[in-house]
Amino acid sequence: MTTPRDWAGPFLEQAREDLRAAEATYSSNSPSTFCMLMQMIFEKLAKAALARKNIQPPKSHQVASRLLLLLERTPSGTVLPGVSTTLAFAAVRDLENAQPAVVNQIVKNGGAQYPQLEYPWKNPNTNFVEWPAKHLPIARRVADPRDPVGPQLLKLARTLEARFNILFP
Amino acid sequence: MPNSTFKPDYFQTAKELANAHRKADPSIQLVLLIPDPKEVEIKLVEVSKSAPTSGDVFPFRFDPRPDLNIHFASVVIILSPDEWNEVQNGQLALPPTWDLAIKKAI
After folding, report:
1. Which of A30, A95, B38, B86 has the most crowded Cβ, counting Cβ within 10 A?
2. Shortest CA distance from A158: residue in chain B
3. Which residues in chain B have their CB less than 8 angstroms from residue A80's CB?
4. Complex ipTM value
């Protein structure tokens, strides 16, 4: 019989492959694809972490924010210096809010159309169709050398991947 | 008419990038420039209390952005204070072309 913990290893392994792709992608100057992969990585790391705690990983894409809550409550010493990871944590939440299924749910519930990962959208203010490579705010930040959000996201993901067994035994 | 004599300032651009990063992450304790003798690429090592300890070194590369007045490619390595100590002790290595002997704090 499969237990929730059995999902931890497979989610972690898939996150590792996505991470390798993200590392290759950022240097090819594809910031929106990098962001899409980073969202996928944090979602899978979150599902792996929940599974390690014997919680069945949900189908939902709104799970990376739960990982952040777990991390904020996990004694991790200097592996993760707690509240001072604000910049990267905020970016992870931005990525989650830009996941297309999450955006669709927000719109269905009457919320405003938010720029999203992966697919174009119609800007309700201008009626122009926009697309992530040019208009997604977090992707624009990742491509800006003045903004360290890209390196910080990658550093956080690499740390969670490398130290996963310490953080989530 | 384009200004053919325009020559962007390598060290000034490096300082501007370092300052922008400090503004975005006030927990940065130290920014080191590893000067490129050809002034093609700005290499920055940034030690930040907000950086988690991954135990490895990964350079993050940016293209030049003339539209933002950044005329040089740049590469950033973010280290936690623990990792910086390991680099100084020789336990963690920077990439081969990153020579700390010529570093400049900026």
Report:
1. A95
2. B54
3. 52-53
4. 0.89
- When pLDDT is cut at 50, 70 and 90, the band that residue B50 belongs to is confident
Low pLDDT (below 50) residues in chain A: 82-84
Q: Does the distance separating the beta carbons of A155 and B54 come in below 8 Å? A: yes
pLDDT at residue B1 tops 80: no
**Residues 6 or more apart in contact with residue B5 via CB below 8 angstroms:** none
- Which residues are CB-contacts of B104 (< 8 A; sequence separation ≥ 6)? B32, B33, B35
| Contact assessment for residue A152 and residue A87, using Cβ atoms and an 8 Å cutoff | yes
Q: Which residues of A touch B (CB under 8 A)?
A: 23, 26-27, 29, 78-81, 84-88, 143-152, 154-156, 158-160, 162-163
Residues of A in contact with B20 (CB under 8 A): 146-147
What are A122-153's pLDDT values in tens digits? Answer: 998 899 999 999 999 999 999 999 999 999 99
SS3 label, residue A131: coil
Looking at the partner chain, which of A27, A148, A158 has a beta carbon nearest the beta carbon of B56? A158
Question: Are A15 and A44 a contacting pair, CB within 8 Å?
Answer: yes
Question: What phi-psi label fits residue A137: left (phi over 0), alpha (psi between -120 and 50 degrees) or beta?
Answer: alpha
Helix axes A8-26, A149-162, angle to 10 degrees: 150
Rg (alpha carbons) of chain B, rounded to whole number: 15
Tokens 């924010």 belong to A65
Q: Which residue has the tokens 């929730």?
A: A4
Distance CA B100, CA B93 (A): 10
DSSP state letters, B49-82: TTS---SS---EEE--BGGGTB-SEEEEEEE-HH
Count of other CB atoms within 10 angstroms of residue B90? 7
